[in-house]
Amino acid sequence: MRCIQEPIAWKDKAYRLPFFTSSMAIKISGLKRGYGKVRVLDSLDMNVDEGSIYGLLGPSGCGKTTLLNVILGFLIPEKGELNVLDNNAQVPGSDVGYAPQELALYLDLNISETLMFHGRLHEMSKSKIEERGEWLKSFLDLPDFSRIVGKLSGGEKRRVSLAVALLHEPRLLLLDEPTVGVDPELRARIWQHLRTITDDGTTIVLTTHYIDEAGKADRVGLMRDGRFLAEENPLELMSKHDTNSLEDVFLILCKRKVVA
Amino acid sequence: MNWNRIGAIASRKFASIRRDHRMFAFIIMMPAIQIILFGYAIGGSPTDLDVITVGEHPIYSELEESELLILHNVSDLEVAKQQVENGEAWAVIESNGTTLTVHFDASNQQIMQTIINEIKTATQEIYPTLALQIAEPIHGEENSEFIDFLAPGIMVLVCFMFSLILTTMAFVGERNDGTLDRLFAAGVQPSEVLLGHLIAFSFIIIGQVSVVISIAVIVFEVPMHGSIILLFSLGLLLGWTAMCLGLFLSTKAKSEFQAMQLVMPIIFPALLLSGILWPVEALPFGLKEFSMLLPTTWAAESFRSIMMRGWGLSNPLIWKSFIIIFAFGAVALIAAAKSLKVRS
């Protein structure tokens, strides 16, 4: 009996764990990338554990979105090493779910059509899309599926955008400012959900402006001028700098950099 | 009404106009180019018009003086008529001593008028008694009207212009609102995006071409001597080519406004240099050769030939048009796919 069940379990999710002993979802070292003469990312190292939430924190213009675009494979590094998931991973492709900072939704479609469209891109069956849709609807508290996306409120659109990224159950989620314009209660629920899916082995990299929010991540990368000031667990980072807010850590590190 | 505020708004706007060099160039250059093109392209006399003379008459040597006509002498009238039938010449002039009979290809009213004027000028000076008789035209209508010349060209322009604008505009928005990035993140290839758009827009151009042909033929009673299916196919192909070009342009534009700036310099030459408003035979120096590079020139000439001359796909002009217009579209589509990169 056990022998019959095992391959199914293996196929289901366990395969993510044993074969890659490093269990590193993203490993970047010495990354350099800019646009033309403008240097955006320089000598950047990044380590994201599989099945964790990684918070990218930093002022706008520090290179967060550029970094996500490198991870997505849109931007080719000028220098440095980049490993995303494993060699066979489809990135860009069905192994990654991406929610850009812009809502990136077709405003003339309704929610059901939106999910159907994106599901088809990932070659999901109609019934699978509907099943996932129902689940996402209750989870993200989405409005009625017949509503036209263009007529939804900002927060509702943000949730639909998130639903699109989650739809095909990707191994890696890249979320650019996923909680902007979402009320605190829902934000808490979104985080709760992100935590649930990381327990299943999904890796999440998100950018945020809300410093307190980043404190819930397993690891934060404090970014400034195209590199990390620190890359650590937020609690450890706070205790190391003897403070109870990430904002203070950021300020301390910025000052130290200026002095150095 | 506060003039201070009005002044502030005016100077703010002026500052942005001055800063946007492309727009500044666009505002100054475009009207200049349009007027110059218009001056060269429209209203001039068509030149190098092949005309066949049959038999002998002193008037022929007089006609040789014409700067617009190129005379060819053929002894047999039927052979000469066949040449006009095949589009190798515009008219056959036949003389029986007291009367000149002209057999026209009346598919192009401007050219027909030019030839008539040249003959009249030559005869009036030396043989005022010589009668000029216009025989039943080999191609086109006996009482050819300007609209018969214009309609095929305008139909071409409409098929081309709207497909071009439609795709250019539609695609720029998708590149800017992040939706295209999302597709690329899902592993979609640029060629897949382009082909998907082409298929969807095809339904629009099928409707567009049908409406254009129906209105011309039914409402305006433009003569239709050839196959309507052939005409429809060519219109559709032109629409596709325009869409491919539009997709390419939109990959180069950062905003809808820039897209408009890219579209306008294409529509005007297409209008003025493709023989739509005026025969390409009247274009000066290199412009005539240039116009042969435009798909709209081939489409306009073929539309006119299908409608007025009743030519079919076996005619070299028609099948060449299909090939050239298709090739133009294919090149534009490949360029669009190359320009629309996932990785940079």
Describe the structure in brief:
The complex is a heterodimer of chains A (260) and B (344). Chain A has 260 residues and is an alpha/beta fold.
Verbal overview:
The complex is a heterodimer of chains A (260) and B (344). In chain A, the strands form two sheets. In chain A, strands 5-6-7-3-8-9 form a six-stranded mixed beta sheet, with helices on both faces. A three-stranded antiparallel beta sheet of chain A has the order 2-1-4, covered by helices on one side. The relative contact order of chain A is 0.16. The model of chain A is unreliable at 1-21 (pLDDT under 50). Chain A is an alpha/beta fold and 260 residues long. In chain A, α3 packs across α4. Chain A has one domain: P-loop containing nucleotide triphosphate hydrolases (Rossmann fold, 3-Layer(aba) Sandwich), CATH 3.40.50. Helix content of chain A is 38%, strand content 24%. Chain A is globular. With 344 residues, chain B is of the alpha/beta class. Chain B is 66% helix and 8% strand. Chain B is built from 13 helices and five strands. Chain B has helices at 3-19, 21-41, 58-63, 77-85, 109-126, 146-176, 179-185, 190-219, 228-252, 256-273, 287-291, 295-309, 316-339, and strands at residues 49-54, 69-74, 91-95, 99-104, 131-134. Chain B has a five-stranded mixed beta sheet. In chain B, α3 links the parallel β1 and β2 (69-74). The longest helix of chain B is centred in the middle third of the chain and has 31 residues, at 146-176. The interface between A and B is medium-sized, with 25 and 14 residues.
